[in-house]
Amino acid sequence: MGLSATHAAQAPGDRLDPRVWRMASVVLLGPLMSSLDSTVVNVSLARLAHDLQAPLARIQWVTTGYLLALALMLPLSGWLVDRLGAKRVYLGCFIAFTAASVLCGLTTSAEGLITCRVLQGMAGGLLAPMAQMMIARGAGRHMAKVMGLMIAPVLLGPIFGPALAGAILQHAGWQWIFFINVPIGVFATFMALWLLPAEAPAREPRPFDLTGFLLLSPGLVLLLHSMEHFGSSSRMPLRDPLEGALALLLLAGFAAHARRRGSEALVDFRLLRTGNFLVSSATQFLVNGVAYGGQLLIPLFLILERGATPMQAGMLLAPAGVGMLFSFPSAGMLTARFGARRVSATGAAIALLGTLPFALGPWRALAPWILSAALFVRGAGLGAISLPSLAAAYAGIAPERIPSATTVINIVQRLGGPLATMALALVLNAGTPHLAGARPDPASFALAFWLLCGLHGATMLSALRLPLELDHSGGNVTPPAAGPTPSPCPPRTRP
Asked: Is residue 8 part of a domain?
């Protein structure tokens, strides 16, 4: 289509090139398909367990296996782009995800379904990072604006996914929760062939760092798996701490290996030495922590402490999603006008205000409309944090280093949620009697909410260190020895 993937497309008058919007309309289909698929499958686990005659503990691996396979492939994204080019990798992911969806629908056993879901996760794990990378390359300084409008449809997946799953399970077999991906995948593949810009691989692609892959990818998988289970039981099995220790050992080994290998390492974590990138990554880590931590803590509070049914809890939680839909599309325009620091820090303060009622109580005096209003405020605040800080992460990154930056920041993002949920679960478990069906005492809930508020405060402090202006000249990162690659986008100046 004539739009270089390595340059921010600018129309006359510093307007965004319309071809970027066409590219964004294609790449959003990947995260949308992955988000919708995950939501529909999560809602269908009980039906899958019944129809495949498998215990829930085993069928849960339909979700867990997908998420761990996603983490396994994440470190490869930058190397694959350098070796094959972004368009080829994205097309390969679409095709593989669609084919794996067909295999999921055709399987007749729980073990077969878990295997196919692992294959699906290996493809789906690269869809969101690849979309993020292509928008960063194509939109330049307008990244927050483009992603704000692009992510809004993706947020519809968790909102409408449960209703779609219910309709499919009522009127068709469970196989159709996977077959529904086929028409989307075929359409997205043809649109990607037509609209995505062609991109040649790097002139001197890095050799594959096999040692780095064997250290980093299993280390991430083991760490995420151990964090998921470490806080889920009041009786901590010995296996979980040992698994976590092995994960840390592998990750420490990768750190030493990457230091020796330098720019030829599978993932170049030296990017974190850059001030803006480090602060932006820390903000992304924390905002994912408070988002996932709230997804764990608030539904448990509504059901166990407030006595709400799952349906009532879902209705109370819906305003949080509406709040995010409200703020995401405007986050980019606000960033262009006020700067990443002001928008992201203000969003963090608003999200903290929306969380404080849960910590302050008294809980029984909080009417349902107060809880819903607080959750709307919290969701709106969370929606205003992420995009400005993500745009700030790419500001100053030379175009040829964007694939590596995407890999690093997605790994950092991925770790924030499990660490926060593990910490909150440990607080709740500390106040839970070792009895079947026992629930945490109110003091544990209060302490957990104060910890969540503390994470919100840390997010705000981190956001206050973000840059005011986003410099897309590529100058904030120490360039490689060959010299910097100038960006066609000059730094934005205020009128």
From this structure: no
pTM, rounded to two decimals: 0.77
As a whole number of angstroms, the distance between CA 271 and CA 257 comes to 16
What does the block give as tokens for 239?
């296996």
pLDDT tens string 221-259: 888 887 766 555 444 444 567 777 888 899 999 999 988
Domain-ending residue, one of 247, 265, 283: 265
Indicate the residue type of 86: A
Hunting for tokens 């449960």 — which residue is that?
162
Asked if 221 contacts 71 with a C-beta cutoff of 8 angstroms, the reply is: yes
**CB within 8 Å of 234: residues ≥ 6 apart:** 429, 432, 434
pLDDT tens readout for residues 248-299: 899 999 999 988 888 788 888 888 887 788 999 999 999 988 988 888 788 8
d(CA 379, CA 384): 9
Cα 227 to Cα 16: distance, rounded to the nearest angstrom: 42
Q: Which CATH number covers residue 429?
A: 1.20.1250.20
Q: Please enumerate in sequence order all residues whose Cβ is within 8 A of that of 179, keeping only pairs 6 or more positions apart, or say none.
A: 101, 102, 105
Taking each helix axis from N to C end, the angle separating 368-394 and 143-171, rounded to the nearest 10 degrees, works out to 130
460, 385 in Cβ contact below 8 A? no
